[in-house]
Amino acid sequence: MMHHIGVISDTHIPQFKQLPEAVSAHFAEVELIIHAGDLSRLSVIDELETLAPVMAVQGNIEYEEVVEKLPIKREVVVGHCRIGIVHILGDTHNRERMARQEFPNARVVVYGHSHIPSNKEYNGQLLFNPGSATDRRKQPRCSVGLLHVDDEEKKVWGEIIWL
């Protein structure tokens, strides 16, 4: 079986008024959406849940309602694939080590915070940052991501989607 997972982070609503319309189009066929923190408001989950179930973690810029409801980190299993989710995953110098330390059994670790998309494999663990759907900062465009989990082939890969 093939699984498709939408991945989004750093939406910062209401600082940014709403999610881009393109998010709905790119996530139309996913079975799960992962939000890697900095939602700011829980209403972001409500909006995304009109597309698919949502697994989210809190970031470092959240309203109290988000901090009270969401964990700092969590794991989810989709098909054969264990996925760790956290907002801040160290920095470029220690990210690989931090991923192994925080999620030793995860095949994929999804993170956010930097607003810089990244899709890199390190010793059998995929580290995936979708970038930001609303705040591109120094990136050429905003972005989201897709994870593809192939149970038959026992493979997983990420895809950065530029908005």
The total count of strands amounts to 10
What proportion strand? Answer: 25-35%
* Spatial sequence of strands, sheet with the most strands: 3-2-1-9-10
SSE series: EHEHEHEEHEEEEE
Structural class assignment: alpha/beta
CATH classification, class level: Alpha Beta
Overall mean confidence score, pLDDT:
95
Proportion of residues in helical segments: 10-25%
Q: Can you summarize the main beta sheet? A: 5 strands, mixed
* Measured distance between first and last alpha carbons: 28 Å
Uncertain stretches of 5 or more adjacent residues: none
Overall tally of structural domains = 1
Number of helices: 4
What general outline do the C-alpha atoms trace?
Answer: globular
Q: Specify the CATH architecture.
A: 4-Layer Sandwich
Keywords: Metal-binding
Protein name: Phosphoesterase
Cofactor: a divalent metal cation
EC number: 3.1.4.-
